[in-house]
Amino acid sequence: MSDNKALVPSREQNTGLDLGGATKDFVTAYIGKQLFGLPVLTVQDVLGPQRITRIPLAPPEVAGSLNLRGRIVTAIDVRKRLGLREKENSEPGMSIVVDQGGELYSLIVDQVGEVLSVPNNAFEQNPATLDPRWREFSDGIFRLDKKLLVILDVTRLLDFTASVKQAG
Amino acid sequence: MDDLLSEFLTETSESLSTLDVELVKLEQNPNDPDILSNIFRLVHTIKGTCGFLGLPRLEAVAHAGENVLGKIRDGELVVTPPAVTLVLESIDTIKYLLSELEQNETEPDGNDADLIARLNHFADTGTIMGADAAPAVDSSAPPEPVVTDEDALQALFDSTEVDPEVDEAPAQPEPPAPAAAPPAAAKSQAVAPAKAAKAQAPKAEAPRGEAKESSVAAQTIRVNVELLENLMTLVSELVLTRNQLLQMVRGKDDSEFTVPLQRLSHITTDLQEGVMKTRMQPIGNAWAKLPRIVRDLALEMNKKIDLQMIGADTELDRQVLELIKDPLTHMVRNSADHGLEDIQGRRDAAKTETGTVTLNAYHEGGHIIIEITDDGRGLNLERIKAKAITNGLATESELESMGDQQIQQFIFKAGFSTAEKVTSVSGRGVGMDVVRTNIEKIGGTVELKSVEGRGSTFIIKIPLTLAIVSALIVESGGERFAIPQISVLELVRASSNSDHSIERIHDTPVLRLRNRLLPLVTLKKILGLDEGETTAEDVDEEAFIVVAQVGTYSFGIIVDRVFDTEEIVVKPVAPILRDLSLFSGNTILGDGSVIMILDPNGIATRTGEITVGGSQGVEGKAKSDSGDRETTSMLVFRAGGSEVRAVPLALVARLEEIDVENIEYSNGRPLVQYRGKLMPLVFIDGGYQMKAEGRQPTLVFQDRERTMGLVVDEIVDIVDDVLNVELTSDQDGLVGSAVIDGKATDLIDAGYYLELAFSDWFGHEDTGGEKKRVLLIDDSPFFRNLLTPILSVSGFRVIAVENADQALELKSRGEMFDAIVSDIEMPGMNGFEFAESLQNDAEWGETPIIALSSHTSEEDFERGRQVGFSDYVAKFDRDALVSTLIQTLSAV
């Protein structure tokens, strides 16, 4: 499923995972205890808790929309997108804003961490046993000292049509 | 200066500056096809525009220049500096002509034969004639233009063509070797003035150089549309930010920001208006092509069409303009093609030969209204019904319960064309649905009014600009939403103890509003925001209802609260939300929050109420009124006494008030001058007394050129009622009495008064030839009295009988008729049985029978066809009856 050929080029384009050079920079984020990484160049903004307008009838993963300096940004609940349970505490999350085809999306995560430079030789393919949903959104894993960093594929995370197709 | 001309000047001087540059480039890269074709295109455009504007001198020069360029482009000629000089020279001439044009608005006298000759010569031979003189010659140099004898020129051409071998070297500067004596002489003639001109050249050069910078061109600049769009977006954002700031300050009493903010607010408003203005264009721009289209169409279809355009200078946003251009063109075409009858058709329908299509544009409360009206045949309901059934859009029983307006809405459905045949202009059924979609896309609405036989009117309502719309902010389920103001009709506050309360039909909420039932939708519910906690009671307790209109369908949206209206900038929603049809976009409000914009269209579709775009709402009333019984519009008036009298409105052409002073007498009979003709006046009875002074209301009856006025005291009302003549009358001029609007009313016999005015009214021959004999069978004396005059004035000889038996009696006497018009419901033998009995009849079997009935359902129609009726006409529709008769008779 994750080897869908048509999607491969776009993945490379958007994440910049060509693995050239010695290290890669990622903006890290926590959802629950899991550490995720987004290629630093895809990230536009990091936001604190925002007032979000609900959008009725939208897919459940769409948390709503918010106003970022006069632009309307669609907020995506990454937790729901990854099929995780609702957060136990009701602390408002933080958001990472990414640009996808000229549209801005705000990915809601529990917490945003620092920017990490990770050596390329720490890269691993997704383990074959990974949850299919995660495998779809993950570009691979970096082995860090104490943790594993899951790289999110923004394009696919935001491609709702594809996931509908695959789910069905 | 003429707009067209000044636009041409601006555009051309721009092209010319480009040309200068491009030509020099070409000289450096003679083989670059891109540069060459660009040059060619520019010159070609200039030539084309000149021709269009009627500037022959300019056109001739441009044409000659284009010739040369064309040859170069095709590789027949080689680019050399002298060649470029020659073309540049023609460009200079064009510039000179343009500057003259700008000053005097006409081309200067004279011609440029010398230059053209040299250009043509080069085009033909590839050599430059008089090349040494060329740079300075500027043959067209004012003020004494070179005049050349044409014969001499022709001779010159001949001579050069005779010696092609001499001219072989393309770049060779000067002239063909001495030729025969006469041509040579001719040539010296031609060159001599050119040389003379050379002397003047320096003088002439100077002013021309100054004229280069056209002053018209300097007054306007061309700006990329994208830049304007960008500006507009920025201004929109600025407006939003301003609103935000205003909202913040509003709460505080005297903030130091109040004054500067006020200023900012004013400037922003001005700026917004200014930028909007840059995008405004007169709607006439979108109409420019229409006269031509209509003219061609008129020729092709053998029609006479008068296209009236009113309000062409009404301005609207160019983006909107672009978007409505095609729908408008389409609709005008439709009106001219389907709407209007051909000349014969119009004559038959007793209309003027020339049909009129009227375009009318005007502003109305932040919107532009465009009306497209034709006085043609109107929409044929029967045909629409039939088509709707064939296309499976509705069943017969559904159609049965629909009002006329609802049925007309079918023409906005995809693939719906009632045109019998596809013409080159329309009838392919890809029309009105696209038109509607396009107009609705820009937040507009289309309404349709049509009366069969009288014509149709389409009313388009579109916002002035797309960038900023006014919207009503409402709250439902704790969220706020914006509803575009254009679709909001009114707001109703409903509560159980007020006049308006929400009632329920099996859980479906409805509202009684001004004697009609308004379907309601609960916003919370359709948005899925109720989360199961909704109870019928709390909704009914108190609610706000936004009455919205989509097309002709109106419905109410129940919301929790209604806030203010706000100017909003519509932004498209993110792609992942595009398939939510309930929203047309989103926006940021003054307080900085994001809000979704509801699409009333989507809501209407979502609630499933409308399949056709028009439903219960508006038409409900008409429907319940009429029930099963057919009503007639009656004009109720008083004349000579206190009792009320009535006449079917269909018979009255106009109502006028005539000044008693203007009444003249001829041969003892009263007349007035009316619309350039004499109109006889008749009174209700012999003893009628007119007012001594003042104005006298008059009912005008008209038939072709003849008009007659019936003088009355007072026009009381127009009443739609079931007509039931209860007492017949023997008195002249009265058909009988009926209860109209609850009162006993005398029905007057229009035919009697017509005859009074023109003793030959029914006798005059207007079609020439023998009159067709029509047998009219109707049990109602009223109808016999009504129809006989109508058919008579239309040129038929009418024999009216009371029932089928009498008709059959006529048959047994050997009477023959060209057509039979028969009622369906009759005592004794009814219309169906009568028709059936004639079906295989030796004498009357071939005679077409037209059914006359108030029941025009599809089943009746079907039955009628089976028993041999050739057509089916609704009672009270006299135009349809007359035209059907004419059609039927001409078909026989």
Automatic annotation (TrEMBL), chain A:
Tell me one Pfam family matched here: CheW
Entry-linked Gene3D superfamilies: CheA-289, Domain 4 (2.40.50.180), SH3 Domains (2.30.30.40)
**Entry superkingdom:** Bacteria
For this protein, the record's CDD domains field holds: CheW
Record domain CheW-like: where: 23-163
Q: Which GO terms describe its biological process?
A: chemotaxis; signal transduction
GO CC annotations?
cytosol
Q: Which protein is depicted?
A: Chemotaxis protein CheW
| Source species of the chain | Thalassospira alkalitolerans
TrEMBL record, chain B:
List the keywords (alphabetical).
Kinase, Phosphoprotein, Transferase, Two-component regulatory system
| Positions of the Response regulatory domain | 773-890
Species of origin reads Thalassospira alkalitolerans
Would you tell me the protein name for this molecule?
Answer: Chemotaxis protein CheA
Q: Which InterPro entries match?
A: Bact_Chemotaxis_CheA, CheA-like_dim, CheA-like_homodim_sf, CheW-like_dom_sf, CheW-lke_dom, CheY-like_superfamily, HATPase_C_sf, HATPase_dom
Instruction: List the EC numbers from the record.
Output: 2.7.13.3
Q: What's one GO MF term for it?
A: phosphorelay sensor kinase activity
Q: Where is the composition biased (Pro residues)?
A: 172-181
Q: Where is this region: Disordered?
A: 161-216
Phosphohistidine modified-residue sites = 44
Which parts of the sequence belong to the Histidine kinase domain?
Answer: 216-466
Output the Gene Ontology cellular-component terms: cytoplasm
Q: Do you know which SMART domains this protein is assigned to?
A: CheW (SM00260), H-kinase_dim (SM01231), HATPase_c (SM00387), HPT (SM00073), REC (SM00448)
The domain of life for this entry's organism is Bacteria
Q: Which residues form a coiled coil?
A: none
